[in-house]
Amino acid sequence: MNRRWRQLVILPMLIFLFMTPIQALAAKKLIPMGEAIGIQLQLSHVFVAHDVLLASNQWMKGGAVIEKINNIPVKTLADAKQAVAQKGQQQWTINSEGKQITLALQNQEAEHVISFLKDETDGVGTLTYIDPETKNYGALGHQIIDSTLQEAPVFKAGSIFLASIQQIRKSTPGQPGYKISSIEKQQERLGSIDKNTVYGIFGRWEDSYQQRLPKAIEIMHEKDIKLGKAEIYTAIEGSKVETFSIEITKLDNERLEFIVSDDKLIAKTGGILQGMSGSPIIQDGRFVGAVTHMFVEEPKKGAALTVAEMLRKSS
């Protein structure tokens, strides 16, 4: 990775190296989306969301895994709450920074600690494409990293839901902006999350979306992408997907750079926002790629992954 790419910030987050032959993708068509989505990963353990000071003056470190409470294994937050319902002193067994530690907590203190535990990772991003043939989807264009664990979480199940943009915090040089969203979990989920890779999240689309899907369009391979005018599809208000103009300024194999040229988008967002990752890029009526990063000091400037590469790495 060259030094320039290290200046990027992932918009918030390869096991499989199977390469689909170019010939198989030559006439491939995908449905470009652009909807804001809520992301939920159900973790395989319960951990502390951030540092908690105990009555013993010890710190329970953020990221510590709760293994047992009163010798009862804890796998979910519900398990922890049920164990804490017992009265009197409790014995907690945790794994913190690779060390197993036993702590004695009084009932009231244990109830306080419960509010700092979690067994899932949530986030917001943008849906990139749906494959009309396989009913698989791809989103984000990068990996989900848990902010407490500072790594990709091990998860046992995952779901995506439609999200609605309530407010925008604009990007300014040196300060990335973000979308403030509400996740519409009262609706049926849009799909499962089966993989969380450095090329995005992938899973099965479940046809619960009430809006009419756009028409599938042909993907554009790296050799055909040109410098110059293109568009991105993304939502910046409610759940409405809008089209905004950009200029592709650099091509580097499966990566590209662009500048936002749309006055409306610049006025509303300042350029690229966290939560915009996964937004489809279209050029000359063909599907080019997905927004993945922004340049912190130049928020009108972004980077993207080609959809051909994203699709190759989805298998």
CATH architecture of the largest domain: Beta Barrel
Q: Which regions have little confidence, pLDDT < 50, spanning 5+ residues?
A: 1-23
Determine the CATH topology of the largest domain: Thrombin, subunit H
Q: How many distinct domains?
A: 2
Mean pLDDT: 87
Largest sheet: 15 strands, mixed
Give the end-to-end Cα distance, rounded to a whole number of Å.
24 Å
Helix and strand arrangement:
Elements: E1 8-10, H1 22-25, E2 29-32, E3 36-48, E4 52-53, E5 59-60, E6 65-69, E7 72-73, H2 77-84, E8 90-96, E9 99-105, H3 107-114, E10 117-130, E11 136-139, E12 155-169, E13 177-183, E14 191-192, E15 195-197, E16 200-204, E17 217-218, E18 228-237, E19 240-252, E20 255-260, H4 263-269, E21 273-274, E22 280-283, E23 286-295, E24 298-306, H5 307-312
Parallel strand pairs: 13-21
Antiparallel strand pairs: 1-23, 2-10, 2-17, 3-6, 3-10, 3-12, 4-5, 6-7, 6-8, 8-9, 10-11, 11-16, 12-13, 12-14, 15-16, 18-19, 18-22, 19-20, 20-24, 22-23, 23-24
Helix pairs in contact: 2-3
